[in-house]
Every structure is written in C-alpha cells, then in structure tokens.
C-alpha cells in the first residue's frame, strides 16, 4: 500500500509539472485589457492554444505586478517595458509599440510648447500610474518633478482620466493611444482634450510579454517565444490588434 501511494504521488507530481500552469497578471490598460477582455487577453489565449500551456488569469495594480515580478513571485505579465533592473528578473518579448502623449483639457495646452516648458512652471502638476515606465524622455523629467512633489501617483489608469475630467489638482496626464482610445470615450472627454506628441525619443515604447526567469521553465519560455513569433508572422497578431484599433493605429502598433 505504501509503495502504491508513493508511486501515485510521483505520478501526480510529474503530471502537475508537465502541465504547466502559470499565473498571468493583467492590469487595467485600456484596449490592452479592460473588464476581462482586450488585446493582451487575446494574445495569451492564442499562445495557450498553440503551446498547450495553461495560464491562470489575475488582475492587479501595475506597481504590485512589478514588485511581485522582481521578487520572483509572479510568472507572467503583459505590456512590459524592459529596464536594467527588470531584465535581471525576466525575459521580454515584444509584440507592440506605443508612444506616450501629453493630454490636456482644451485651453491649458496653449501655455506650454514642450514637456520641458511645462516642467519649468513651478505651479504645474502631472498625474501618472504608479509603476509605469513612460520611456526615457518622459521619465527623466518626471523624476525631477517628483523631487518637488509635483507628481500625483495613482494605482489605476482610469483614475488619471477621472482626475483630468474633474479639472482638479493636475494639469496634464501621459498616455498612449492603446490606453486613451478607450478611456477618453468612457469619460466623455474625446472632444474636450488636446493631445501633444512631445516625446523626443527615436523609438516608441515596447509592449512586451514578460516571463519570470525564476518561475517559467526554459522549455516553456522557448515554447512561448516560438508561439509569439508565429503569431507575428502569420498575421494573427495584426488580426488581434485590428479587432480593437483602427487600421492606422494597428500599423503604428506593429511598427517595431
């Protein structure tokens, strides 16, 4: 009997290992992920179909996702932007590109010709999502604004647009098309804002699937990488993005 139970335990353990089940943490991200749907969800579902890897889906604030990823407690997340610190803990595989824009209520944009110009005024304030990487151009100036306590950090993307609509405390927010296309509509702000492309970086920010080096096996990492390349090459990725965005926005998102 003991021998039977031991063999059964080994068999169950082997089966559990063979059938990988990784936690994928999504965050409120406009057309990428909102109300349990979006581009990121569709990409993960397609990868699961092609690899037979199982994924459990959770939703968490962005800052918490990065904390758990860096601590080795989260297997996978989406729409990640690499950094030296993050590269130590995870692999990044790009599937889209986005450029952040400055968004003002109409009328306020006339006071500033650039983000540097905006930052020079000691009375101005900006709101950002905690844990977001906005790219080197914006993040360098945001770091300076934080030193003078002129940055409001929030947990969720929709809070930024709520603050903008109320026209209280903040003068500007940063967001990319894949985020603001949905939220401007939801908050009835489409005709009430001006959007400026102030980012001087040559390349747009990458949106990547992020795989924990600690939790995702080498075999599964390779399977996911190959599946993502297949999705890019056979037109499936374009079809997924086009489901949510215009043809022009889709082509921009795939320009990497």
Question: If you had to describe this structure to a student in words, what would you say it looks like?
Answer:
This protein has 256 residues and is α/β, with parallel strands linked by helices. It is built from eleven helices and ten strands. The strands form two sheets. The chain has a five-stranded mixed sheet, sandwiched between helices. Helix 2 crosses helix 9 (218-233). The radius of gyration is 21 Å and the shape is globular.
Q: Strand share of the residues? A: 15-25%
End-to-end Cα distance: 60 Å
The backbone outline, from C-alpha atoms, is globular
For the secondary structure, the number of strands is 10
Oligomer state of the chains in this structure: single chain
Strand order of the largest sheet: 2-1-3-10-4
Rounded to an integer in angstroms, the radius of gyration calculated over CA atoms is: 21 Å
Runs in which pLDDT lies below 50 for 5 or more consecutive residues are 2-18
Helix content: 40-55%
Round the mean pLDDT to the nearest integer and report it.
90
How many helix segments? 11
Largest sheet: 5 strands, mixed
Question: Topology, pairings included?
Answer:
Blueprint: H1 2-18, E1 21-26, H2 39-51, E2 54-59, H3 62-70, E3 76-80, H4 84-89, E4 90-98, E5 101-105, H5 115-120, E6 126-129, H6 136-147, E7 151-154, H7 157-166, E8 172-175, H8 177-186, E9 193-196, E10 205-212, H9 218-233, H10 236-242, H11 247-253
Parallel strand pairs: 1-2, 1-3, 6-7, 6-8
Antiparallel strand pairs: 3-10, 4-10, 5-8, 5-9
Helix pairs in contact: 2-9
